[in-house]
Design brief:
The protein is α/β, with parallel strands linked by helices.
């Protein structure tokens, strides 16, 4: 007999709505939403198979969508320590029910080969639903010829390209432009890591030659205006190529100014920022010893004036999404001895693996720092963490909202529950947290993935491999 679930008496919050009602779920999808005292509710309640979940005093929100994670990301020397299993389980405990991770095209490989390899890794392990962006590093006629099928057949409608990391991931402006033109004609979008990699390399080499080897110099050699310069360049290339463009992990006020300027002209330029840029500043690099290596991610942490600009940008839709860029390298050697850690960069900041963890803390951090601090409305919080990611990356209305016909991916959230963020209690394998000891108000209580409860307080009720690959429709077609 089909299992039917009633989420009873919760305060349903979407990007636009806020009301108390019951949600009825069958076969993993929302089939009805009705007032508790309505005839519709009475008819559903008469069904003897009904599993009733009491949501009174809880917020019921769409499952979070994190469109920037790096699980099992292999950078040669270093590898992120969360597998698709541990990383997606950690995401689930944080109220995220869909991630969009990355398939990295290596030199000599086709993008389709990169996608197939990632699918084979992720499918047996994923605990939440997942999709992929493809990172293009080898742009040749065959690569370009594959793009239409990747979008239409395989459901990959977004491609990340790097303006940073010369000799490793960086591609030329010409190749970015070539990929943009093809993607733009077929419903695709280009996500850009915008930093001027060649100039930054000059600054890194100068710093090292002067004996400036500590993690602090990671921040000092990646100046804000080099992010702004690359952001402006990427947007202009996209404008010429007639493709939507999405700036990943935007951190600098000056880069945001470029996005705003383009959007004011009607250009489909979009951007995300990440919790670490909203809650931490460049001062973390003054921590003693090698401790600051925990905060080495790219772009680096910025001054507090950037934080203010980012919060303002989130409020007024200059920034559309908050993602985590979860890229967890252990600080010390990981217990299995398998993956290399931040310690690789002892004595040379350039060798510190770039990236930091955070997939589990996006919702509680943004709720506390945004909603509780009156920087964001509750509706805007949902929009930034679920609805806009779904719309931007071709998952809406299956994901990203609470509506009849949508997947029953739901978070039951207690806005009054205090808790402390810590690596001692998070569910990621990584051995530290950027937010160690942060006190926040608001906690994920229960999480549903396609109608099935997968998290109940501290209990994991889901199954490894239950996450499903999401074929996405067009990306970036959300400007009126
Ligand atoms: O430092 C970062 N952000 N590492 C992950 C790779 C990337 O550029 O997103
Ligand atoms: Zn990046
Ligand atoms: Zn990233």
């Amino acid at each position: 007999m089909t299992n039917v679930v009633q989420i009873k008496g919760g305060r349903i919050v979407t990007a636009v709505d806020d009301y108390v009602a019951d949600i009825f779920i069958r076969n993993g999808r929302i089939e009805a939403i009705a007032a508790s005292d309505s005839d519709i509710s009475a008819e559903w309640v008469a069904n003897s198979n009904l599993e009733v979940i009491d949501a009174s005093d809880l917020l019921v929100m769409p499952g979070g969508i994190d469109v920037h994670t790096h699980m099992q990301f292999d950078l040669g020397d270093a590898q992120t320590v969360d597998s698709y299993e541990t990383g997606t389980r950690s995401a689930a405990f944080g109220g995220t029910t869909t991630i969009v991770d990355f398939a990295l095209q290596r030199k000599g490989q086709s993008p389709k080969q990169a996608l197939d390899a990632r699918l084979a890794l992720a499918e047996p392990q994923a605990c939440v639903d997942f999709g992929f962006h493809i990172i293009l590093t080898d742009v040749n006629p065959d690569t370009l010829a594959e793009i239409p099928d990747l979008i239409d057949r395989d459901g990959v409608s977004s491609f990340k390209m790097f303006m940073a990391y010369p000799g490793v991931l960086m591609v030329s402006d010409a190749d970015i432009f070539r990929a943009m033109r093809v993607a733009g004609h077929h419903g695709g979008m280009i996500n850009v890591h915008a930093e001027n990699g060649e100039v930054i390399q000059v600054l890194i080499e100068e710093a090292l030659a002067q004996g400036n080897t500590s993690p602090k110099f990671h921040g000092l050699t990646r100046p804000r205006i080099m992010e702004a310069e690359a952001t402006h360049r990427a947007i202009r290339l996209a404008e010429l190529a007639e493709v939507p463009v999405y700036m990943v992990h935007l951190s600098a006020k000056e880069a945001l100014d470029s996005v705003v300027e383009a959007r004011d002209r009607g250009i489909p330029a979009f951007a995300e920022t990440c919790p670490h840029y909203l809650f931490l500043t460049i001062e973390e690099y003054d921590r003693p010893g090698f401790e600051a290596a925990k905060y080495v991610m790219t772009p680096p942490l910025r001054e507090s004036e950037c934080q203010h600009a980012l919060w303002r940008g989130l409020k007024f839709d200059d920034l559309q999404i908050v993602s985590t860029d979860h890229c967890p390298f252990c600080f010390n050697e990981n217990p299995h001895g398998l993956n290399k850690s931040k310690q690789l960069g002892l004595g040379n900041f350039e060798k510190i693996p770039n990236g930091a963890p955070g997939v589990e803390f996006r919702l509680p951090l943004l709720f506390d720092g945004g909603v509780n601090q009156h920087r964001l409305t509750l509706n805007r919080f949902v929009q930034l963490t679920a609805t806009a990611p779904a719309k931007m990356f071709g998952l809406f209305p299956r994901k990203g909202t609470i509506a009849v016909g949508s997947d029953a991916d739901l978070v039951l959230f207690d806005p009054r529950k205090p808790h402390v963020l810590s690596a001692a209690t998070h569910h990621s394998v990584v051995d530290y947290s950027l937010y160690e000891g942060f006190h926040v108000l608001g906690k994920v209580e229960k999480v549903f993935l396609r109608g099935r409860m997968i998290v109940d307080g501290e209990q994991w009720l889901g199954e490894t491999g239950m996450g499903q690959y999401q074929r996405r429709s067009a990306s970036g077609r959300i400007m009126a």
